Each structure stands twice: as structure tokens, then as C-alpha cells.
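Re: the multi-chain job from yesterday

Posting the exact lines I submitted so nobody has to dig through the queue logs.
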Amino acid sequence: MRSIPVPTGSRSGSTTSAVAPAAGAPRPGPAAAVRAVGVHKRFRTRAGVVTALQDVHLEVAAGEFVSLIGPSGCGKSTLLRLVADLEEPTSGELSVFGKAPRVAREAQDYGIAFQQAGLLPWRSVRGNVELPLELHGVGRRERAGRARELLALVGLSDFADHTPAQLSGGMQQRVAIARALAERPSLLLMDEPFGALDEMTRERMQTELVRICAESGAAVVFVTHSIPEAVFLSDRVVVMSPRPGRISAVVPIRLPGTGERTEGLREDAAFFAAVTAVREALHGGAAGTPAVAAPETAAGAPRGVDLR
Amino acid sequence: MSGVRAGLRRAGVALVALLVALVLWEVVKAVVPDTGVHLGTASLLPRTDDRAMPHVWDVLARLGEAESGARDAPTVLAATLSAAVFTLGIALVGWALGVVGGLLLAVLMQRWRVAEHAVLPWVVLSQTVPLVALAPLVVGWGGRLELGPLQWERWMSVALIASYLAFFPVAVGALRGLQSPTAAQVELFRAQAAGWGRTLVSLRLPAAVPHLLPALRLGAATAVVGAIVAEVSTGTRGGIGRLVVSYAQAASGDPAKPWAALLGAAVLGLVAAGVVGLLGLVLRRYRTAEVS
Amino acid sequence: MSTTTSSAVRAAGGDVLRRALPPVLLGVVGLAAWQALVVAADVPPFLLPSPTAIVEQLVEVGPLVLEASLATGANVLVGTLLGAVVAVLAALLAARSRPVDAVLSPTAAAIAVLPIVALAPVLNTMFGTTTTTPRRLVVAAVVFAPVFVTTLRGLRQVLPVHRELLRSYAATPAQLARTVTIPGALPYLFTGLRIASSTGVIAAVVAEYFGGLQDGLGSRITSAAANSAYPRAWAFVVGAILLGLAVYLLTLAAERLVARRQGL
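And the result, C-alpha cells for all chains:
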């Protein structure tokens, strides 16, 4: 295990590490967007100690789109919240662009969006997008300009002066994404941002997210419980299993043809194959075996033959 | 068990708060000049001489002494307590009347939409205006009105005013509670061919409890205020309202006495709230979360 | 867009008419029945004067009613402001510190059930009977509890998602208060103020029954009743009702304004 290089050296206490920093350890190459090494997280609850995450190793490269998928209780949201420094790991090493999560949070290296849009109801759409900029002392004119760009990016230019209550759920979520992008983060953390939307809105939002990510070039860690959503969006899908929460498989998604994620992809045979692969990884993972390759007997093909 | 301990802790905190208030009292008395502080004609800080602000221990001592120079005069404490009990009785009668009336009106408004549309605005408006201003007028009925064989007595005026004040919050709270079941719950009863009465008893009344309890508590507090105010304006003897005024008139010669009466009034308010609290204990099964 | 708006406005107008009609009708019928009852049954004025007699008196002593209403209204205004300011400061303290909350919350709950008006006579002794201070203090004490309770509830209302968002922005506690906590609590404060103002008016009128200056509505009602001038006493009661309505509408408008600005 490698120690995490900390830029200033004075704030290294923020990650609680069970491993002593090895002196003179080789520096890692160009910093990954997220690197987790042997991360454990335990919660003390009334029913006893619950292991939310056990021995998680994960690396997300700069500009890469990675989805975390798994049944509820598998710790996918917890992992995201550790990266965001909303919680601290019980043990293990976690770094964001080579910095401790707290340092990365204080430097605003990431933008975040939750399942609830979480807009402030008393601020206009523009005011909500400007909030992070305002908190970090960006001047009025620059804020207004950036908000205009971002609202154009998410297609809400005409709604800048509306209040959140006047928007639909999908529009509110787009405002939340614009807000997450306000400070040009090179990492986006998204915790089931489309979980509360209907299927049609959801697919439209996914297509838009692909476009937005291509324009911003940010790495994304995306928590979801929808298999097609994970497959459509991701370069890699990280499959997790519960009790204790851990990574059971990682499914790389290889796109057919030009490699572009368009609406047509949803009906492509390669898309279905990837969906099947993730589904089987999920089901195999629940039994506790690290399933990557799909057993031939599991899925629907032989049964189709029987029926005929 | 933990409920008992939480209750004890709260009682302890209340005692601490009371002690802080008493210490503050003595500090103000020591620091502020005897004549008070005035700004123009408005008086900002009170006079702090022994006549206006007696020492805490003087008030406590006064409680144990005789009320007046008469030979068989009771102690101030006894007189205050008996007055408080008298007023509590009237306030509770008024409260019960107001609760019954409020509940009936709420059921009526729930049953007939038109009744709700016609009456509710008036009920809401009545809560916003000082109808207790009528007290000195209702008081005039005492001894001059006969309803058949029944002679209208002064305490009845007092109870009427108390019931009047308790009535409005109960009617509003009960209506909100009766209307609180969700559409799904109401439709479930309809699907099982339950009539309006059955739905009222099995669904609406139990569902109304969380809304009703705060309304009952508020009603008790306003009934006490109504009773005291009515006693003052009627000059009804025997109650705490009268005692507050008559002890206050004795303040120049006997400064600790009015504070003793105030203690009685405070105890009265707390006991009335406590009685309603007991009701909440009885109904605790229906008391999922209170909505005020 | 514009057609849907105008039809919505029209529908709302019809709705207002349909909803206003039953209560107005009930009011008119009630007044007529009152008048008929008093005239037909020859009800003595001490029991119930007729509406026309009350209106007659209202016209006759109109300026006096206005003057008394202004005097009582000033007590309501100053007392409510004083009580609300103290309550908001106390709520801010209680929201920040658990021990302060442990002392203040039960205290406010106890104050809410105490017959505060009974304080009026001793306050008269403490501050003198020639000043309005005792009445204003009674109003302030009555206003304190509801404003404290609702404001504290508002301050506690911060959604977890907002708190986490601000944490992810590495916002300072002051920034959290300025952008999230205080704006979120404002509607609660104004709701509390609306509830409290009604009880404040009642307290201001009733406090006058306990002696002191003779310039307000409560004193006028008692003195008119004592002189058996019942219709005149009723005229002052009408003044008190109008004062209560005015204060209610004022606070309701403030509450609506804040709620609208908050996009709620």
C-alpha cells in the first residue's frame, strides 16, 4: 500500500489511515481523479457495528466516467460520500487528485449532485447556480457570466429568473448539475441524481449528461441502481454487493462503431450484451463470488429455444 | 423508564431556570436605582424599592403568614390555593363546554361542506379579534337574568366567557384533524361500504387526535385567561382573578402580597395544562405526532 | 401562456365569489336575526343591544373609539416588536447551544400556559400607573412564547441535503447561517408573529381591565359598562374587533410577502 502524497504536509491528519506512510515510497504517476486503497468504513448503530465498506480498492482516471451499482446497503453511496469528505473512512487510503479528500473539498476540486436537487427555494435559478461562486468570493459580474454559460449548457437559459418551485423535477435536477459544474471541477460526484425522475425524463437527462461531460472533460463517479443507466453512461461499471459492502466486479463497457453514446446505442446489440454482463455480475456478486465472466447457462437464451 | 428519567431531567432544568430567574430578580433589585429608569414619560426600568419589588424571601415568608388582621384569617398560601382551586373549577367547566361545542361544530363542518364554507371564516376571524372584550358586558347578566327556574349567577358568566375562549381553537383544530385522513384511507372505508358514522368513529376521530391535543391545550390556557379576566371584570369573589386585584391594591402597605397571588395564578395555569396533559397520556396510542 | 393565465385569474375570481358568498350570507342573516330578536323580544340592552343601537353609538363616539384604538394599537405594536425581538434572539441562542435550549424551551412552554395578564397589576406597581410600559410588557410576554417556538423550529428545519451541499462547498458556519439557515427560518418567524399578534391584541385590551391609564379600548369598555351605557360599550368592542382585524391582516400580509419572496 502506498501513502498519499499531501501537498502542504500540514493537513495530513484528515484521512485516518491504519497504514503508516512508508518513507521514500515511489510517487504514483499522474494523479488519478480518485484512488481508494484498502478502504474500510464501519458505522456504529444501535444494532451494533455495521461494516458499510470492506477493503475497497478503486481507481478512477482523469476524465473517466465510472458508475457504482449494487443493491441497497452495498455501500455505493457511502463510498461516494467518503470521496466527497462528507464522511471519513475508518481505515484505508483515499485520495482525490493526489490530495486528501478534505484538502480536495476545501480546494473545490469536485462538484456534487444528490438525488434531491437540493435547490434553495428562496433563490432564483440563477441565484442557485451562483451559490458556490458567491460563497467563494467570485465577483458579481463574473458570477453572472458563468451562470449564463452554465444555464445555456443545461438548456435553461429562459428560466434564469424562475424560482425552483416553478420548475419540473427534471429541470430542477439540471439546475443542480449546472450548480455542480459552476467551479469547473475536474471531478463530478453524482449520487443517484436521476433516481426520482420518470423513465423518459431520465433517458433525456442521461443523453444530456453525456454531452455535458464531453464538453467539460470532468471525471465522473456516478451512483445508480439502474443497470441500463450505468451501461449507457459509463466507461466502467463497478458492481458492488452488500453485507459487508464491497466491490464484487468491474465491468468495462466497450462501445460499438465510433464509440459515441447516442440514442441509437440504447438499441444496439452491444448495449444489451453489456447490460446482460452487468446484470450477471450483480447476481453472481450477491452470492459472494467475484463473477466477471458470465456463466453460459444463466441468462434467457436457452429458455427461448425451449419455448420454440 | 427513560421517559421517567427524561421527565425528571426536564423538571430539574425547570428548577434551574426558576432559580436563575429569582437570582436575576435580586440582581436587578440591587443594581437598578430605587426610582427606576425613565425616558421621557415612558418608564424603561422598574422601581426597585422594597414596595415595588419585594425580596424573594419576603414573598415566601408572606405565604405562611395570615392574610389579614382578622382573628380567623387563613394564611396567604391557603387563601391563594383555595382561590386557585375555585377558578380552576370554573375554568374547567368552561373548557369542557367549549370543547363539546367546538367538537360538535367541527363534526358539523366536516359533514356539510356548506356549513364549513359559511362558518369557518367566522371562526377563524373570531380567533383574531379580542372577543374577550365582551367580558364586562356578559358580566352584567349576573343576578339580572332568569332562564325559567334557573337564576343566572355570576360564576356562570365567568364560565361562559371561559368556554367561549376555549371553543374557537378546539373547533379549528378538530376540523383540521377530522379532515386529516388521506384520500386513500377514506376510499378504503368507502370501498368497504362503511357509512359516514362508521368512518367518523373508526377513522376520522382517531386521526384527529394529533391535531386535537394541541388545540385542547391551547383551549385550556385560554379558558384560564378567560376565567381570570371575567372574574376581574365581574368582581366575582372567591377566585384568583379577584385575589390578584385585591392583593395588588394592598401593595403599598403589604408589597409581598400581590406576588403571592401571582404564584397562585401561575400554578393554576400549569395545573390546567397538566390536566390536558393527562388526557394526552390516555390517548397516547393515537398520538403519533402532534401537529400544531 | 397569457390565455391560460387570464382564464386562471377568472376561475380564481369565480372561486373567491363562491367561497365568499356563504360566510357573507351567514353574517347578514345573523345580523338581521340579532336585530329582529332584540326588537321583537324586547331584549334589555344590558343583555344585548341591537346592532342599530350599536352603530348609532359608533357614529356618535367615533373619534373617541378611534383614539382609544390608536392608544391600544400602539401598545400592541411596541409590545409585539419587543417580544418578537427577544424571542428571535432567544431562538438563535437556543439553536446554537443545547444547554440554552434545554432551559429556554421548557420555559417558553410554561409561559405559554400561564395567565400572563395577571402580571398587569404588579407591573403597574413596579412601573407606575401613569405609564404604558406595564401593558406593553404584558403584550411582549404573551408574544414571546409562540414566536420563540416557531422561530426555533424554523432554524432547526435545515434539510440534510442543504447542509451537505454547503459542507461540500467548504462553507463557513457564518455562510451556512446567511445563505441557508436564516432565510429558511424567516417564514416560520412570520407565521409565529401572525399567531402571536392576535393573542397580543387580546392581552393589550385585557391588561387594561386591571387598572392603570384610562386611554385604551379596554378601559373605555369597562367604564361604559359600569355606567350602564351598554350600546356605547359595544361600540368600543367593535373598535377592538376592528383593531384585531387590522393587526391580523397586517401580519398576514407580511407573512404572505415573505413566503412569496422565498418562493414557497
